[in-house]
Amino acid sequence: MSTKEQRERIELLQGTLDLLILRTLMPGPAHGHAIARAIEINSEDVLQVEQGSLYPALHRLIKRGWISVEEGTSENNRRAKFYRLTAKGRKQLALETSKWDKLAGAIARILRPAEQESES
Amino acid sequence: MKRRKRMLEDLDQDMRDHIERETQDNLERGMSPEEARLAALRKFGNVTRLKEETREVWTLVWLEQLLQDARLGLRRLRKSPGFTVIAILTLALGIGASTSIFSVVNAVLLAHLPYRDPGRLAMIWGTNTGNGMESTPVSPGDYFEWKQKNTVFQDIAASRDDQVTLTGSGNPQLLVGYDFSANYFSILGVSPALGRTFSAEEDRPGGPKVAVLSDKLWRGTFLADPGILGKAITLDGEPYRVIGVMPRSFDYPPGEELWMPIALPDSAASDYQHHYVRVMGRLKPGVSVERAQTQMTALALQIDGEHPATDAGNGVNVTPLRRQLVGDIQTPLIVLLGAVGFVLLIACANVASLLLARATTRHKEIAACAALGASRGRLLRQFLTESLMLSLAGGALGIALALWCTSFLVSIFPNDIANLSIPRIAQIPLNMPVLFFALAATVLTGVLFGVAPAMQSARANAADVLKESGRGATSGSRSARLRGALVVGEIALSLVLLAGAGLLIESFERVAHGSLGFQPDHVLGVEVFLATNHYPESQPDKQRAFVRDVLQRMRTLPGVQSAGAVSTLPLTGFWGETDFLVEGRPLPKPGETPTADNRFVTPGYFSTMRVPLLGGRDFTDADRDDGRRVAIVDETLARRFFGGRSVGKRLNLGTPEKPEWWEVVGEAANVKAFGLERPDLPTLYRPYEQRPLVLVAFTLRTAGDPAALLKSAQQAVWDVDPDQPIFKALPMSILAAQSIALRRVSTLLLAGFATLALLLAAIGIYGVMAYAVARRTHEIGTRMALGAQPNDVLRLVLGQGARLTIFGVVIGVVAAQALTRFMTSILFGVSASDPLTFAGVAILLTVIALAACYIPARRAMRIDPMVALRYE
pTM for this structure? Predict the structure, then answer.
């Protein structure tokens, strides 16, 4: 494994995975592997999740009632567990997203004050 | 709970599906099947750990893990019962011993004092550089000056010893009482259970006669009469009104039964001559004992200057009340507590070393756990749980042991002591502080002996261990070093204990083999305080007649060989003093007037006690009031003041202006009146007939057991005066035993702990060597196959043991040299760094340790190379 490869990828912040899962489930229910793939593809492979860590996160979200789980069949006709965003989860996502925007904005302003000003 | 179960049921399946899908994706990306699967697994992460993490979402993980660890620990412990039993027993001994000694410390040194803010209470004693006395009562003149001039005490109060005879309430009783000034109770901060304490009006000469009773006296003699207040009781023939009863918890000074006003007359303020006032003070807030001591010393110096004739050389000794009450027992107890702490440490080292040995053999198991995803913290927790289980079992057994021990300790600590300044240890409760101590000791030991092996094991790198060969010739070299260090530590600690015990035993030998100067066996002592109303000082003939009559009766009792009387018996703690001047010597400087222990005896006293006469003659019946004033001096006085030739010389017991001459007619051997360990005080004996006193103790030499004569001896007193109470009657051998009881107990206990330590250390070094031999069986077999002789093997193993032992002994000797200094005050006739004792215990420890090594060494010698090389 080359160090270059590692440098190009970003470790997920604690709790960020939860937010990404919720966002991924916005369009509709998905099974575990699909969620992992979606995160990778949508981030253009910058965010590489240790795929297994998805499961503790999913269970954490279920316990909080932000997502629900149901049995279903996947695209290739296999039984799988599908995770679906609940109403509570939707609210949480909105909340978390705005929080994230604020945080990201604040950090960006601190890191690059000049650019921010010229851009805005 | 059901939801959690359902959620977790399919987790395995979900994860497997996930990995399969990823594999599929990878195949589509063009990887080989093998590659595709490995890449998927790598990307997924550690399945076991992730499953564990997912499960943690749903459970109180720590609790579940704790139960798991406990179950696993229990299974492991049960699998090696030998190890478990030895570990638990070792810990139980350590914790039990520590807990029982702590319970004594808790009951004695940390006892709750039922006074307000007791830390600010202190006794203020007099000292005198001239006669080397410390902690003596002071003159009322000194007391009044202190009271007036000091600025460090909030208030100081006076008290005085008193004995009165209670009559008219059942049998006549001699009551030991205390005369208090009115403010004494308020300084202590105590209130009576019934009624009140004295007022300032009652505490003056000629004031109303009032008394405050102890709870014991009220319940025992007055049957807890609720209407006692205001009633009159007869003390020394006079009516005293009871105004109060103290609560049961109030026992000051210890053992007192009633309190009366001291009522110091105004004239006392100018009396610097008579030392009878015992002073207690309450320090002002924020004033330290040291500061009080400094000011009081300065004050004493000033008074010395103003009254050189009486006060020269007088000083002050401020003693905190707790130290006063604890007395001589403090140092031995602290030494013992330190000793059991060492025993506990040795026990810990032993168990740690056993655990380390086990951990080494469990390397593979641990590595496998780590490979399967157990984190280092998790492994550490697992090991600590196991060691805590051991220590808890040990602690429980230890507390049971302590329960038994404390009742044993109560029985061996000297009790009901007349002649020792230590508190009564009537009971040693296993209360909350003690249990807390035991629990703390248990948990602490669990962590202490568990952490090193746990760290050692958890540190093990999974890959390294799994690669390592089963023989593990190199594995655990670090753990072997650690075990070596533990053994060195154990040996060093044992040496410290052995040195301490050795010094105490040496001291005890010297004390016990010293001569008291009289033969206490077969002597019965009967102490009497003549009631002053029946035997007033103004009628000395009555006192003479009483003593003469009682002695006459006692001499005729069957079984009595001889009888005599003395004003104060040796070893009872009662004594008197007198100043004296030697004829023909220049007058001493102020403050340097010699004093002598002052006793009055009847003819027959010396022969009854078997005090040898070294010269001159004994007193005879002819030495009466109308005869020549005669005296007998002891060897010390004769040597110090007469160059050893005392007979025929004269002593002036009056003043230079108004001499009162007494002629020395005999010289008696020294009597250790204050105990074997105390230095000799010059002693002066005079005939009782020539100077009668209310203090009388009869002594009877008996043919058989003196205790058998108790009744008839007492009856002899009552035949003469049925109203005369007897203070105490007991065989002198009991007093003699009591005078060394505390030393005997502390020596016995310390020797016991040292033996225990020695035993544990021997087991420790044996265990380490046996284990080392077992580990090196293969190596030794190889050596023997290559031509090593059994003696070479013996040398190899013994050499290793000897290195550890010598290392431990050297460290121990250095540590002991530093620590035994703290025992100096309880040693007698032996220095704290006595080279003989140190050499002796070093040799003893070395021999025992080498003997413990010899057993595994012999086993190593007998190794059959063929078997050893096949051994895996």
Answer: 0.73
